[in-house]
Amino acid sequence: MKSRLKSAVAALALVTALGTFSPVLAQDAAGAPPAAIEVPPLGFVKRTLPNGMDVYTARDTTTSNVTVQVWYRVGSKDDPQDRSGFAHLFEHLMFKATKDFPDETFDRLTEDVGGNNNAFTSDDVTAYHETIPANHLERLIFAEASRLGSLVVDESVFESERDVVKEEYRQGVLANPYGRMRLFLPMLIFQHSPYRRSTIGSIENLDAATIEDVRRFHATYYRPDNAVLIVAGNFDQAELDGWIDRYMAPIANPDRPLEVTDASEPEPTGPREMTVHAPNVPLPAVMRAWPTVPYGHPDRAALTVLDGILSTGESSRMYRSLVYEQQIAAQAGSSPDFSQQAGYLMAQVIMSDGHTVDEGLTAIDAEITKFRDQPVTDAELNEAKNELVADALRGRETIDDRASALGWALINTNDAATADREIAEIQAVTAAEVQRVARRYLTDQRAVTLRYLNADEANPVTAQQTGITAPVTLADLAPVGQVFTLLPEAERAALPATTDPVAPTTPPVADFRLDNGLRVLVVEKDGLPLVSARLNFDAGSGDEAGGKAGVAALTAALLTQGTATRSAPEIATEIEQLGASIGAGSGPDFTNIYANAPANVFPQTVALMADLVRNPAFAQEELDRQRDQTLDGLRVALATPGPVASQAAARVIYGDAAYGAPGSGTLTSIPAITREDVAAFHQHRYRPSEATLVFSGAISETDARALAQSAFGDWRDTNSTAEARVAPLGQPLPPRVVVIDQPGAGQAAVTVALRGVSRTDADYFPLTLGNTLLGGSFTSRLNQEIRIKRGLSYGTRSSLGVRREEGLFTASAQTRNDAAVEVSDLILAEITRLSTTRPTASELTTRQAILTGAFGDSLETVDGLGGLVANLALYDLPMSDLAAYVGKVEAIDGAAVQEAFAAHLPVDRASLVIVGDAARFIDALRAKHPNVEVIPISALNLDNAALR
Questions:
Q1: HEC profile for 501-558?
Q2: Are the C-beta atoms of 352 and 329 separated by less than 8 Å?
Q3: What is the DSSP string of 234-250?
Q4: CA angle (236, 238, 242) in 5-degree steps
Q5: How far apart are CA 779 and CA 5, in angstroms?
Q6: Contact at 8 Å (CB) between 811 and 749?
Q7: In a designed cystine with 418, which of 409, 457, 794, 876 is the match (CB 3.0 to 4.6 A)?
C-alpha cells in the first residue's frame, strides 16, 4: 500500500532506490508543458507450445542477466474449503526437490551463482521468478520444467515448510500490531467470493492439511496449460526456443478439464461494518472500503486516477487534510485492489494519539463526498496522471520489472496488450470520468467499515473466522498422480552446462570540486533518460548532543516542509507536478538529500533540491507537526518486537554514547527538541565544503558541472565553525542478556549484537563475505539451521552494520515465543563457528558470487549505480574501488574470514536481546543465562543504557 507513515522513524537509509524515467508534464518557463516522453512497448514475443503453455520472450543485450518467470493461474481463491492458505503453502514446497535434484537446488542454481529467486501468491496467481547471469539460462529452464513435471513432496519437507508458513503468519499477522487487519477486511468486503479469505490462511487450516491434499493440489493446478513462461534478458532467441522445446514441451497435461473457480461477487445490498480488537495496538485505526471492479474493467483507469488524487503523495487530499491540516492521523492512505474477477478501493487511517476512529471516518467521508459532488481540478488531474505514469515506468526499469508487468496483465486479462495500454488509458482519464466512478461506486450504501482497536479486559481479542465457505472442496481436486521420489544420483538427468559468461562493466567516475569546496562526482549511464542526484553531509545521529536524540532526523525531515519562498504544500505540489522524487534521510554518520527525475526536468528538480537544502525555514508550526508525527511513528514502532529489539541492541552495545541513541529519537527526546536545536544542527553540519554531490544517469560531466555550479556554486559555509565531533561510540561495554517483556506478543524477536568494525577497516571485505555466509542471504547458515532445517522462523538475517567508526553487528530472527531460547542458541553457535573454523571452498565461491551478483545488479539501475559511488564518497574511499570491487571480493580466502571473525566478532563479547512474551521462555533462558535482565515494555526507557 502506498500510504505513508509520517514520522521520521523509517527515514534512516542513506540511499533511496527510486526508478526509471517519467513522462512528466510539468510546465516550462513559458507555461507550456514539455512533450511527454514516449513509452516504448514491452516488446515480448508470444508462442504457444503444443501442450498449451504460453511462452513470452523479450531479448535485451544491455544487461548481463536474464529473468525467468513462471506464472501459474492458481491463487488463494482456489484454496479448498477448510484449507485456506493452501496455495501459499504450496508455493513454499515448489522450492524443494524433484526427481532429478535434491532440496534447495533452486537456491544453488540462482543465489549461489550471483542471482536471486523468489515467489509470491495472491488471489489469482502463484508466480515464481529468478534472475541469473545469462550463461545459466538453460539450467533454469531445465529446473522450472523439472519442478512442474516431477516435484517431490515428502512428509518431512511438508512438515518443515508448514512450520515456516506458520512463522510467516505469526510475524506478519500476530507480531505486527496492525497485522490482523488483513484477515478481517476481505471477509467484510466480499460476502460470496472466495476473495474473502486471506492468502496467508490460518494456523488451524494449515494444521489440517495433509500431504495427500498437497499432492492433489499440484495435480489439479500445476499443469502446462495453466502456466505462462516469461523470459527476458540477454539470450539468443533460437537457442532459447530450443531449450524450451526440449524441457517444457514434452510435459503432458492430465486428461481432465482444468478447474476454473468462480470468484465473482454480486452487487452489495447495503453497508456493513465490524469492530476488531487486537493486542498491543498503539493507535486506533479504521478502514473504509467500497467494492468496485475487476482488473479488466474499463473503469479501472478512472478509479486508479481517483485513488492517486485521494492519497498519492503529500499534496494528495487525504494527506493534506487528515495528516497535515487537521493533524488527526499518523498515517492516511488508500489503495485500489483490482483482482481478476472483483475489486475494491480501500481508505485506511491510523489515528494520531488522542484521536478517535470516528474522527477518521468523518474525515474520509468528507473527502469521498467531494469526489461525488464536484469534478476534480485540472491541476489535480494532471498531477495524479504524472505520478501514476511515472510510477508505472519506474516499475519497468529492470528486465524482472518488465516481465512482472506483463505477467500481471496476462493473469488478470489474458491479454498481453493490456500492459502497454494502461499508460494511455491513465492519460486519457477526464475529470468527468473521475466524478462518474465516484458516484457509481463510492456510495454510502456500498461502504464497508472496519474499526480496529486495542483489546482489553472488556474487549477481548477478536478471533479469526476460519470456517468461511469456499467454492472448491477437497473432493473437487484431482486424484494423486504419480508420486515422485529423488532418483539415485546416477539415474538423475544431468544439469545442463553453462555457457560463456557476460561480464558487467563499471563506468568511469568524473571527480571535481566547485570553488566553495563542494565535491561533485558524475557517473554517466546510457539508456533511459533519467538522472538522480545525492547530496551527502557529515551530519548524523552520531553528531547529536546528549538528550537531543532525533535532531538529525528531524532536520532532514523538515527540509521538504518549507523554505524562505515555498510552503510545505507548495513543495509537495511542485515535486509531484514534476513527476520527480525528492527527499532526505539521516543515519548514524550522514544525511542524504536525494532527487530523481527525467532528464528533461532534472534542472528544475535540482534547483528545487538546492532551495530545500540552502534555505529551509524550520517554521515552528512545521516543527510541531513533524514532532507529533514522529511521536506517533515511535508509538507504532514500540509496539512491534523487531524494532524494539533493534533499538535496545544499540543501547546495549554503545550505552549512553551517541551511537546508542535511537536515530529517530525517543518519546522523551523528541518533545525536547527546539527550533533553535534544528537550525543550529543545520548551520553547523550542512556545509558545502564538507559535502559531496553525486549525479548518475543520463547526464554528461559538462552538463553536471554547469548544473552544480548553477544550483550550489554561490553557496558558502557559514561563519560559524563546525562543532567538533565527540566520539559517538563510547567505551566497549560488557555483554548483557536483556529480555523486554511484551505480554501477548505474537512472536519473539531475537537479536545477538556486537560492536563491529568501521567501513574503512582492513577486514571489511572478509567480514562482509563472512556475514553473507552467516545471515546475508537465503542460503546462509542461519537460514539453513533456523528456517530450512527446523521451521522456526520465516527468515533470519545478519548485518555487518558498518559505520564511520565501529559499527553495530547484529544477527536476528523472529520466532514463536517458546522457541526464543533455541533460536538464540543457534545464532550464537553459528557466529562461533565462523570464528573457529574456515568456510569451505564451495561456501566461499558461492558467497563471492552472491556479492558480485548483487554488485552487478546495482550497476544496471541509475539509482543503484549512484548509490555505489555515493557510498565510496561517504567513507572517503577512492573511486577506483568501484572497478576493483569484484577483484577484492574474489581475493578473499577462508583463513581471512575466520581470522576476521575471531578478531572482531568473538561470541564471548556478544549481547543478547529478546523482545516477546517472557512468560513463554524466561525460565529456559534464565537456566542458561542467570544474569538475564527482564524489563517490562511499559518500563522501557531508550534514553539511557540501563533501558529503564
A1: CCCCCCCCCEEEECCCCCEEEEEECCCCCEEEEEEEECCCHHHCCCCCCCHHHHHHHH
A2: yes
A3: S--HHHHHHHHHHHTTT
A4: 115
A5: 32
A6: no
A7: 409
Phi, psi for 329 (deg, rounded to 5): -125, 135
Q: Which of 327, 283, 244 is nearest to 55 (CA)?
A: 244
| Structure confidence by residue, pLDDT tens digits, 438-491 | 999 999 999 999 999 999 999 999 999 998 999 999 999 999 989 999 999 999
**C-alpha span between 644 and 629 (Å, rounded):** 18
> CB pairs under 8 A, 24+ apart, for 206-210?
206/85, 206/89, 206/162, 206/165, 206/166, 206/169, 207/162, 208/82, 208/83, 209/83, 209/86, 209/89, 209/162
Give alpha helix (H) positions in 594-695. 602-614, 620-637, 641-654, 669-672, 675-685
Report the candidate in 483, 480, 190 with the shortest Cα–Cα distance to residue 342.
190
Half-sphere exposure of 17 (CA within 13 A, CB side): 10
CA 220/CA 258 separation, integer angstroms: 7
Binning the chain into helix, strand and coil, the percentages to the nearest 5 are 45, 15, 40
Residues of the chain with pLDDT under 70: 1-39, 720-723
In this structure, what C-alpha cell is assigned to residue 82? 477448510
Give burial (CB, 10 Å; 0-12/13-18/19+) of 679: middle
Predicted pLDDT at 725: 72
Cell of 115: 542471482
pLDDT in tens, 330-387: 999 999 999 999 999 999 999 999 999 999 999 999 999 999 999 999 999 999 998 8
Report whether 584 contacts 700 (CB < 8 A): no
User: How many whole angstroms separate alpha carbon 224 and alpha carbon 249?
Assistant: 8
**Strand runs labelled E in 792-867:** 796-799, 808-815
Contact status, residue 742 vs residue 938, Cβ threshold 8 Å:
no
Alpha-carbon distance 349 to 429, whole Å? 27
Instruction: Say which amino acid occupies 434.
Output: V
CA dihedral defined by 372, 376, 380, 385, rounded to 10 degrees? 80
Strands 272-278 and 285-291: unpaired
Interatomic CA distance for residues 302 and 295, integer angstroms: 12
Q: Answer for the pair 264, 341: CB distance below 8 angstroms, yes or no.
A: yes
Global model pTM greater than 0.90: yes
Pick from 311, 171, 442: which is nearest to 182 by CA?
Answer: 171
- Distance between terminal CA atoms of the chain? 36
Q: Which residues of 299-316 are buried (b: 16+ CB within 10 A; e: fewer)?
A: bbbbbbbbbbbbbbbbbb
- What cell was used for 31? 507555461
Running DSSP on this structure, what letter comes out for residue 266? P
- Ramachandran angles phi, psi of 427, nearest 5°: -65, -20
Residue 597, amino acid: A
Q: Is 387 a catalytic residue?
A: no
510: which strand partners? 522
The catalytic residue among 91, 138, 422, 830 is 91
pLDDT in tens, 680-695: 999 999 999 999 999 9
Rounded distance between C-alpha atoms, residue 91 and residue 699, angstroms: 43
Q: How far is CA 60 from CA 67, 134, 231, 472, in A?
A: 11, 11, 10, 41
